[in-house]
Design goal:
A hairpin with a 6-residue loop joins strand 11 and strand 12. This protein folds into two domains: 117 residues, Response regulator (Rossmann fold, 3-Layer(aba) Sandwich); 104 residues, LytTr DNA-binding domain (OB fold (Dihydrolipoamide Acetyltransferase, E2P), Beta Barrel). With 237 residues, it is of the alpha/beta class. The longest helix has 17 residues.
């Protein structure tokens, strides 16, 4: 298991390395002392897990996650318990209070091992839906499986994300997101929208000559004429 440590305290990073030495399957592939360096380390090393401090001089661990296109699994390591609820709202594997006990760290690593074993391999010849997306909108955060997102809607440099009754804004363009999506599941219906096909409840003809998709929660999404033609051909309509 490859791990990156992000903590602004050198002694805290050294202590984590010492504790991790007891686990033969662990390799610390990078470390950083601030959010900016942490982003670069995670993007470069693509670790299985990040041990992530929350309060750092140039931002928070939540800011780091929000800046990543592909956030990895995370265990927060902090001296404060005030962020615990927020951490579990973003589906952190665990939340360890300093000084970190070896048994608690071992439990957190065990959760990541179990999660890795439970992840099925993608079928041959098929692009997977790639993991999760981290969304930070104001004071709220979410870690959302891409396959559970119903609709992506472009709003300038942002994308509004529809899932579980929520509609936060994500600082990512629709083009950036589309590159991560399985085209067998996600359909670009117009320049500004991508729909998850498993949430489509009905398809109707629109007066414009295109199609109109009705999603499970009643949201209607128009499909451009050109894309409607392609959709009809692929669906045999």
């Amino acid at each position: 298991m490859n791990i990156v440590i992000v903590d602004d305290e050198r002694l805290a990073r050294n202590e984590l390395r010492r504790l991790l030495d007891a686990h033969e399957d662990i390799c610390v592939v990078g470390e950083a002392a601030c959010v900016a360096d942490g982003i670069r380390a995670v993007e470069r090393m693509e670790p299985d897990l990040v041990l992530l401090d929350i309060q750092m001089p140039d931002g928070t661990g939540f800011d780091l996650l929000a800046a990543l296109d592909k956030p990895p699994a995370v265990v927060f390591t902090t001296a404060y318990d005030s962020h615990a609820v927020r951490a579990f709202q973003v589906s952190a594997l665990d939340y360890l209070l300093k000084p970190i006990e070896p048994e608690r760290l071992a439990q957190a690593l065990g959760k990541q091992r179990a999660a890795a074993q439970a992840t099925p391999a993608p079928a041959a010849g098929r692009a997977p839906v790639d993991g999760k997306v981290f969304i930070q909108d104001g004071g709220r955060c979410w870690f959302v499986e891409l396959d559970n997102i119903m609709l992506f809607e472009s709003e300038g440099n942002y994308t509004r994300v529809y899932f579980d009754g929520q509609r936060p804004l994500l600082l990512r363009s629709l083009v950036q997101l589309e590159a991560r999506l399985d085209p067998a599941r996600f359909l670009r219906v117009s320049r500004s929208r991508i729909v998850n096909l498993r949430f489509v409840g009905a398809v109707d003809a629109a007066p414009s000559g295109g199609l109109r998709l009705t999603l499970r929660d009643g949201v209607t999404v128009p499909m451009s004429r050109r894309r409607s033609v392609l959709f009809r051909q692929s669906a045999g309509l």
